[in-house]
Structures are given as structure tokens and as C-alpha cells.
Design goal:
Distance between the termini: 29 Å
Structural class: mainly alpha
Radius of gyration: 16 Å
Mean pLDDT: 85
Number of helices: 4
């Protein structure tokens, strides 16, 4: 049964990364205004990415995800860097800055719930010993 959830988790993670990249490109092309477009589309997309991240994070803390116990420190460092980078603006970079800004922001939305859940698990594991 854990093998099936491992495959499901892998697919959820890959879908989340792919959707984040596609959404980031759409934001960069001004097809989606991440701040306010007069519609609720950006909020639905952010909620979908956050939900995928939440499910991937829950599977990871249950030990059925793609992130193993040995990979957690590396993932956490990468997630912190990605979330920190998503707070900066690359819009001033000529030609591809807006695309890079959109991709990093969307990836940050997807990775933040995973990192948060893994951080809570790490604190729990440290505290229970």
C-alpha cells in the first residue's frame, strides 16, 4: 500500500511543479495578473497549488512521500531559498525577468506548505526525544 502512495506522491509533486511553471509563465506573459485581475482566477490557482503542496506535505510527513527522512534537510534548505527568492522581484531583468518572477512565485506557493509541514514534523521529532 505504501508503494502506491509513493507513486501518488510522486505524481502530485510532479504535477505541482509543472502547474507552478505553467502558471509562472502565464504570469510572466501577463495572461494572469497575480495581484488583481478583476477575477478570482489567481486566487483559485494559488489555492490549487497550495492544496497540492499540502497533500504532498502530508504524504511526506507520513513517510509515504517522495521526500525521505535523509532528504529533509536538503529539501528544507532549498525550500527556504526558494521562498526567500520568491519575495524578490526579477521584473527588471530584460526579456525574461517577468517570467522568472512568475515561476519563482508560483513555485514558492507550491513548496511553502510542504516546508511548513516538514518543519512542524522536525520540531515534533526533536521535542519528543
Amino acid at each position: 500500500m505504501a508503494e502506491i502512495w509513493g507513486k501518488v506522491s510522486s505524481w502530485i509533486f510532479l504535477i505541482g511543479i509543472a502547474v507552478a511553471i505553467i502558471v509562472g509563465l502565464a504570469i510572466g506573459a501577463d495572461a494572469i495578473d497575480p495581484f488583481y485581475s478583476g477575477e478570482a482566477t489567481p486566487a483559485y490557482i494559488a489555492a490549487f497549488l497550495g492544496f497540492l503542496g499540502l497533500v504532498a506535505g502530508i504524504l511526506a510527513i507520513l513517510g509515504m512521500g517522495t521526500i525521505t527522512k535523509e532528504e529533509i534537510p536538503t529539501f528544507m534548505m532549498a525550500a527556504i531559498l526558494l521562498i526567500a527568492i520568491s519575495a524578490t522581484s526579477f521584473g527588471n531583468i530584460k526579456w525574461f525577468g517577468d517570467y522568472l518572477d512568475g515561476i519563482v512565485s508560483a513555485l514558492g506557493i507550491f513548496v511553502a506548505p510542504i516546508a511548513g509541514l516538514l518543519a512542524v514534523k522536525a520540531i515534533w521529532d526533536i521535542g519528543k526525544d
